[in-house]
Amino acid sequence: MKLPELKIRNTTVQWPIIQGGMGIGISNYRLAGNVSKEGGLGVLSSAALDRILTERHGRKFKAREAAAQDVRDAKEISGGKPVGMNVMVALINQYADSVLGSMDGGVDVIISGAGLPMALPEIVATHPRANEVALVPILSSGRAVEVVLKRWARHGRSPDGIIVEGPLAGGHIAWKTLEEANDPANELTKLLDEVLAVVKKHNLNIPVIAAGGIYDHQDIVDALKRGCAGVQMGTRFAATFESGANENFKKMIVDAQPQDIELAHRPGSPCGMLFRVLNKSPFYQEAIARTRKPKCNKGYLLNKGYCPSKEENEKTFCICNGLLSSVNMNPEEKELWTVGANAFRVNKLMSVKDLMQELVHDKDAMQAQSAY
User: Fold this and answer.
1) Which structural domain range is residue 132 located in?
2) 92 versus 334: which is more confidently predicted?
3) Residue 250: what pLDDT?
């Protein structure tokens, strides 16, 4: 099956593959720029860009300027091809600045999840490029779609696409308990059918994107046959030469076994959502043993404006410090590695170019053709 283009508002992408925006610093400008260059939609992560850009460029950046510059840096690599930015709702202190800065820099698609992005269209409406940029929420139920549609309608906007993320995704997922995440009713295929039905009910001509557990060409084909317009993938791209993950992190992805992957829940993320990790992460091991004293000195990931990890380490653990360490930016802390549920299937590092070729083309068909 030849994969089709992916159209989101004013943006057309050669292949229906979105590289997930993985923070902190995993989805860097090199990764996103090269994915876009190879015909996918490369997506940056806004998390901690003020720190990341300050170190990369050697001068002080605030959140808005950092987001703008990161988009420009990625587009320089992509040759001007479309680039997206993932802005987590949970990063409330920098949410608006990250959205507006991305637009300043020429971003084509803004993706927002880790909470319902209720304020996104209101923020975007204040920018001169409001009608140019596609807005795509990450949602995990038909009910969530209904809520977002109702709220966004007040600002004369509806989603330009919807990413439906199932419980096999890496990092933060929508569910708060293991029972919910493991409930067969929340399998990705069922969530997709639910969301596709809501989109049809409202006569929305927008792409629905499958995410969470997508691994290979056949998974992409299956999603398209189900009625999706494309897929979003994270872990496969984290295991590329171009990703911002350090060498320890990449090696652990390649070496991972199924038993090494788990959903952190107690202690868990300060924002209250389940968080999928490699349980061999040194930072996570400290968190489980409660040997890392309560501490949060970065202030990115908050729950209702506050990080409980500042005061306690029984229920939650600081995530920002561990993630920064995993991109070689926080040497005083140990590393925290987050992956999707299928990370154990990765057996080697690849270039973005080679990975895109593998995802776009049916390997059996290619092998059969080469035999003649």
Assistant:
1) 6-244+344-364
2) 334
3) 97
